[in-house]
Amino acid sequence: MSPRIVFHGENAACFSENFTSHVAGVGEVAVLPDVLSTETERRIYAEAEFIVGVKFDASLPTPKKLSLFHVPGAGYDAVDLSLLPDKTVVCNCFGHDPAIAEYVFAAMLSRHVPIQAADRKLRAGEWAYWSGALDRVHGEMSGKTVGLVGFGHIGKAIARRAKAFDMGVTVANRSRVEASDLVDRSFSLDELVQFWPTADFIVVSVPLTPSTRSIVDSAAFAVMKPDAVIFNVGRGPTIDEQALFDALRDKRIGGAVIDTWYDYPSANAPMKHPSSLPFHQLDNIVMTPHMSGWTNGTIRRRQRTIADNVNLRLEGGRCINVVRDEVRRS
What we know:
By secondary structure, the chain is an alpha/beta fold. It has two domains: about 5-95 and about 295-325, 3-Layer(aba) Sandwich (Rossmann fold), CATH 3.40.50.720; about 95-285, Rossmann fold. It is built from nine helices and 13 strands. It has helices spanning about 10-15, 40-45, 95-110, 115-125, 155-165, 190-195, 220-225, 240-250, 295-315, and strands spanning about 5-10, 30, 50-55, 70, 90, 145-150, 170-175, 185-190, 200-205, 230, 255-260, 285, 320-325. The chain has a seven-stranded parallel β-sheet with strand order 8-7-6-9-10-11-12. It has a six-stranded mixed β-sheet with strand order 2-1-3-4-5-13, sandwiched between helices. The longest helix has 20 residues, at about 295-315. The model has no long low-confidence stretch (mean pLDDT about 95).
């Protein structure tokens, strides 16, 4: 008898540990590699009732019994929904917002509270940042403003933490967000030229769609504060690649913290720069390898969501985070 649940690929496999303890009556779990290279692997995939994976395309066998296809993250752009059976429910999951918010604030704080630099200098006998002289003063977060491009799970998590630091919050969103305890001012995406100058820190967390590709362009950088710092924790191409490089190279903004990129490693090129442009030569950018949301807490929360949806399908209930429901044809 084939396993009813398949975790397909390295990413999905991270959520498989002790998975059966969260679901009832599903039996064995199979963990398959990204490339299904044997007939046995392809058969197991084709017979699965539940698949957890980050992609589905014509290169994979069609699982005729598939009840649930679950993406173990928010993005499902690599899943061709049209190729999945009509009876298959497709879901995604979040749970990464606390981790990404912590990442954003770690980077913000490091710019204002230079603990590591102070430690390094004091070990060498230099009393940098010592109180008592204006030329040794450092900054603080209070009174600064964070601008959020997108106000979904991530944006809301950042806004809550910003208010704990007595920061202002402005939001640019597809639909205007009402002012509240979390949001001081909001703008629609048609009003970005007014939004960009409002913030000391700008965090981009929108998904990549035709309307958000290069939503941050050269015109945006031209009207940002000269000391503004831009973050990308959404998708790389939401910030125009050349425009970002030019703004940093020419010191038109204060800096950038970039976690999502333009080029990613592959099996044939596991070591590579994340862009064809030499960002790594710039001194006003912090570069991280799409790590902001990848924590043990994220894995735990996402595994729980996946398990809950498997249980709901087994019980005939309505899943959460539905990307595509069953297709009912007349």
